[in-house]
Amino acid sequence: MSAASSAAPSASTVAAIREKARRLSILSMMATTAAGSGHPTSCMSAAELVAGLFFYAMKFDPKNPTSNDADRFVLSKGHAAPLLYAVLAEAGTFPESRVMTLRQFSSELEGHPTPRVPGVDAATGSLGQGLSVGVGLAIGARLDKSSTRVYVLLGDGEMAEGQVWEAAAFAGHYKFDNLTVIADVNALGQSAPTMYQHDMETYRRKFESCGWAADVIDGHDVPAVLAALDRAKATRGRPQAILARTVKGHGVSFVAGKENWHGKPIPKDQLDAALKELGGPITIASDAGNSYERKSLPKPPDFPAPAPPDYSDGKPVATREAYGYALKRLGKVNPHIVAISGDVKNSTFSEIFGDAFPDHFYQGYIAEQNLVSAGVGLAARGKVPFLDSFACFLSRAYDQVRMAAISRSNINLCGSHCGVSIGEDGPSQMALEDLAMFRAVHSSAVLYPSDAVSAERLTEAMARRAGINYLRTSRPKIPILYSSEEKFPIPGFKVLRQSAQDRATVIGAGVTLHEALKAAEQLKSQGIAVRVIDLYCVKPLDARAIAAQIATTGGRLITVEDHWPEGGIGEAVISALAQVGVAPAKFRMLAVTGMPHSGKPDELLDAFGISARHIADAVREIA
Amino acid sequence: MSAASSAAPSASTVAAIREKARRLSILSMMATTAAGSGHPTSCMSAAELVAGLFFYAMKFDPKNPTSNDADRFVLSKGHAAPLLYAVLAEAGTFPESRVMTLRQFSSELEGHPTPRVPGVDAATGSLGQGLSVGVGLAIGARLDKSSTRVYVLLGDGEMAEGQVWEAAAFAGHYKFDNLTVIADVNALGQSAPTMYQHDMETYRRKFESCGWAADVIDGHDVPAVLAALDRAKATRGRPQAILARTVKGHGVSFVAGKENWHGKPIPKDQLDAALKELGGPITIASDAGNSYERKSLPKPPDFPAPAPPDYSDGKPVATREAYGYALKRLGKVNPHIVAISGDVKNSTFSEIFGDAFPDHFYQGYIAEQNLVSAGVGLAARGKVPFLDSFACFLSRAYDQVRMAAISRSNINLCGSHCGVSIGEDGPSQMALEDLAMFRAVHSSAVLYPSDAVSAERLTEAMARRAGINYLRTSRPKIPILYSSEEKFPIPGFKVLRQSAQDRATVIGAGVTLHEALKAAEQLKSQGIAVRVIDLYCVKPLDARAIAAQIATTGGRLITVEDHWPEGGIGEAVISALAQVGVAPAKFRMLAVTGMPHSGKPDELLDAFGISARHIADAVREIA
To answer: Are B155 and A332 in contact (CB under 8 A)?
Structure first.
């Protein structure tokens, strides 16, 4: 790193930081022993690092700790939550007494951090995700032309997660010099020593190979910590890693550096002895019971209506392509949109946006985990992230999506190339589980357009909706179904064919909706009328509205989907109906049941049971 | 690397390899142009590398290409499938004419490789997974004390995937010197140049930082390729990376090194010109239409019955702990079992097995993606992998599980700490989507034991069952329900409480089954009899047998699960019933609907609607 930009800190500063670190360790022990669970030793290894950060390096506003005008901190090693709560308390965000409510049912100070706690941008506790969140915050700061910095505390155990190296490579490539990692290398994982233990040079080589500045220090040597933080801040053109050799359980002889203390509080009868070694206990007022839960969480910013889509020429368009046009239209009216693509912008069509707004578009390379968690960081800074890959590859980031939901984050995901209708590329490229996956995400909307107009309108709806939004797009070009003025509320569906004579309801979406329309034509020629429903919103569902449709077609229902039978449209509909006390009189669920293989899209739709022929057969069976 | 172990190859050997490489490029182009899709340029960059591997370095048996007595090859960059098919054809596994059926509906030669093709151990095409498969094959070879080697061809685009670096770190740490990576660094991704383009030294630093020997060569220089393969083979104590600088589309001037040719065949009208540049075309007999689909896929080896579990002391035991005991019992009778834990062996209890069979246990560190794909490699060598982590963190490897299913692999996954019943650690550690996730996997069994006996018996069943097997274990200690002799067939369930007066059926599993039993006791005291079913097998389901139970309780059904409502027990049951034409007369689905937080397990079960109190209320509502 470059030379320090500031003079060495004074002896009194060093002493003050030492005192803060001591209090953080003591408070972490006291809170976890009171809770009867938690990870005090994982806090104690990082006490000097975090004290140095908050009370020396960071521009931090304790009363508005997630302000875009201040530096941001991400505790990637989320099990050190008590340390984070302790430092927020010491900084004045809430009283120390509140830390003693750790892990209680009624406390916002949970076992691992969530944005319920002021100062927490993203939930952590699934390891290896925090650096990607930091990357998203760093992108946001760069877009805002803000001089604020992002600090991420990593544990060494979590550096076995590949996502850490996706994020490190990404940050190095884009030269985010507003991003600093502090690695708490305490050499002990949960069940055993870490892979590299205290081999600090290996960590240095890893970060340097990703284009980072790297600095190895003793993480308990306060002057060394402060000097490293100064050097990091002064470094230009590269992110910086402060690799701190530490001792798990530092400061208390009978736990320090010892195995089998991970995730274990100091036993009640040993707490006094432990605190004494750190000159404790400290006096803490009893908790008044007040909640300090964060009142307002980020919401997607409002924006004026974009120009409507125009497909009046009537030519077939793939929904994946419409997604790109929609993003571009949105980009013109919403300056907060940022798109990242997992090296597939020419397949998902986010390149249409990227070409129009190059500063708001990032090539995410083939690294879906970093893609999603970076979105969480962007959203925490008030941006509106749109993240794309093939739908099947988003399954690689399911844990990251799950954590995004726990983060109460507002992220938008677009997965293209769903189902067997992609054809020749074969099953590795076919998403057949994405509806199941995204439905089982708290706060999610699962959207599945069947034409370009709805794809565009739903993309716009995503930009306005809080929570996890997923758009499933399709590879084939398909006919336009709707006029540009059509509205697509969430929840909702469209009835595309109906008559008083309808003998069954067929619910589909995407390619299967078009197969259903074909089947309806065939059946009509045979004198059988069927209702056809476009279920463009798979979650949430308006069960009563669907039930009303089915009731008028003799209770006969067919669902058809380019997805496994588990967790998709069929199960969503049948389960929603059951929960409002409705069951179809007769029911057929058409879905992909065998393992598909390569072939032409039409061959595959037919071979795997979801083509117009199968739909018509099912109608004739039950109607 | 160390000095070459063999003399330099003769000029005639070099010429023969060059000729093979030329034929591989030509065949890749011809096949993709005939198919009208595919990735010829991604094949052409690696033609010399693959020719050198198959016709110089590898001990390869074309008639038994996945023999444990021969070297193994994993094409991690699966989109270069035509190159793999071409080399298998050139080696004699099937005729060249068969390669011309690429991507056809009726051909086993799919767009991306699957084990339908002889010589393919694992499906690839979701990038960045092949090195982990190679790691599993390397573990297997080491366990077998076999001198065979494993070669993995990586693309440079996929090296952005963190999983590559999980696998590289793992292989370096365990010093797998029977493992060689050949990296085809052609500098062009799908949508744009790769992150590092031809910066070969960065790749060298990355591999070296993981403890590998690394060698940078010109990938089109045949003598250099062969020399590097010799050096790799002679290297002891470290895995080896041959980092080959290549040109995408090498050999054909109008595509070589050009952007916008990814995934595009040479147009028909330009094919002749392209082939001419490589001295082509070559003459290929017309295809006889014979399938060369692999006849037999690996099955889990049979083994004698282990000693029965013994919980006769009646003390409560967590199902996660029983899993560890079961693995140990199995280890005594099945020498093929290999367990890997994601640094949680002391939470999932695989340490019980690891302590008994240290050679068959690997610390997988915190890297779930590598964990799962390594299992696929192990299974391909006839091992029986048991892979464990917290259930929520298996969501990180969903893409790897999906690919394992496409690989027709036999892997066993154990996910512990499901649901809100884990308590104080909070939602980041609670699996609430794992049933949805694993149900939507082709060939999967989803098992969810409610006591130690069933946990042990189901673990044994997993070791015998082909496909993807998932065991959901729970954190709390729970009472023993079954005698050691009880059988647990797949599919199946147990009726634990029944009488002729039953007014409703309650289906639960894990902690909610025990809540249901408590509710049944409470209701009994109020004169309300209910049937209680232990759904230990969530997938597959015997819908008719469940329907018969519900029919005898007035069609009234309650499902209760420590899982989101989407894709779990409730949806599985209601959808299975609907598919056999049965609907409950009255139905209540109890599941976790709000975002949970920290608290005591009992507080959380009650707060999130799945405790005995809620079950009893639901029964009273509908019965």
So the answer is: no
Residue of A161, A368, A515, A561 marked active site: A368
CA B444 to chain centre: 11
**C-beta atoms of B393 and A399 within 8 A:** yes
Query: Is residue B454 within a helix (H) or strand (E), and if so which, with residue range?
Result: helix B452-464
Q: Which two tokens stand for residue A302?
A: 């409002």
Integer Cα distance of A563 and B569 in angstroms: 19
Give the burial string for B211-240 (b: 16+ CB within 10 Å, else e). bbbbbbbbbbebbbbbbbbbbbbebeebbb
Query: Which residue, among A307, A336, A300, A334, has the nearest Cα to A457 in the 3D structure?
Result: A307
Give the mean pLDDT of A456-483. Answer: 98
The tens digit of pLDDT for each residue in B192-234 reads 999 999 999 999 999 999 999 999 999 999 999 999 999 999 9
Are the CB atoms for A536 and A492 separated by under 8 Å?
yes
Residues of B in contact with A107 (CB under 8 A): 598
Q: How far is CA B247 from CA A326, A525, B75, B182, B318, in A?
A: 36, 57, 18, 15, 56
Q: What is the C-alpha separation between B14 and B51, in angstroms, rounded?
A: 10
Contacts of A567 in chain B (CB under 8 A): 436, 439-440, 566-567, 571
Q: Is the pTM of this model over 0.95?
A: yes
Name the residue among A491, A587, A597 with its Cα closest to residue A541: A491
Quote the CA–CA distance of A258 and A187 in Å, as a whole number.
10
CA distance B546 to B555: 11
The answer for A 155-214 residues in CB contact with B (under 8 A) is: 157-158, 160-166, 169, 173, 189-192, 194-195, 202, 205-206, 208-210
Establish if B143 touches chain A: CB-CB under 8 angstroms. Answer: no
Residues 21 through 50 of chain B touching chain A, CB cutoff 8 Å: 35-38
Token reading at B352 = 């019980």
Report whether A404 contacts A570 (CB < 8 A): no
Residue B285's Cβ-count burial label (10 Å; 0-12, 13-18, 19+) is: exposed
Q: What is the mean pLDDT of residues A486-491?
A: 98
Beta-carbon separation of A191 and B428 below 8 A = no
Chain A positions in Cβ-Cβ contact with residue B425 (cut-off 8 Å): 37, 111-112, 125
**Cβ count within 10 A of residue B272:** 11
CB-side exposure of B193: number of CA atoms within 13 Å? Answer: 10
Give the span between the Cα atoms of A454 and B188, in whole angstroms: 34
Q: So which residues of B are the catalytic ones?
A: 368
Q: Per-residue pLDDT tens for B145-165?
A: 999 999 999 999 999 999 999
In chain A, positions 398-457, which contact chain B (CB-CB < 8 Å)?
398-400, 402-403, 405-406, 408, 423-429, 432-433, 436-437, 439-443
Q: How far is CA B139 from the centre of its chain?
A: 16
Whether the ipTM is more than 0.95: the answer is: yes
CA distance A163 to chain B (A): 5
CB atoms within 10 A of CB B291: 14
How large a percentage of chain B has pLDDT more than 70?
Answer: 99
B339 burial via Cβ count (<10 Å: 0-12, 13-18, 19+): buried
Please give the Cα distance from A475 to A455 (Å, whole number).
13
Question: Shortest Cα distance from A402 to chain B (angstroms)?
Answer: 8
Dist. CA A595–CA A607, nearest whole Å: 11
Mind telling me how many Å the CA of A539 is from chain B's nearest CA? 10
Phi-psi sector, B345: left (phi>0), alpha (psi -120 to 50), beta: alpha
CA closest to A107 among chain B residues:
B598
**At which residue do the structure tokens 């249409």 appear?**
A352
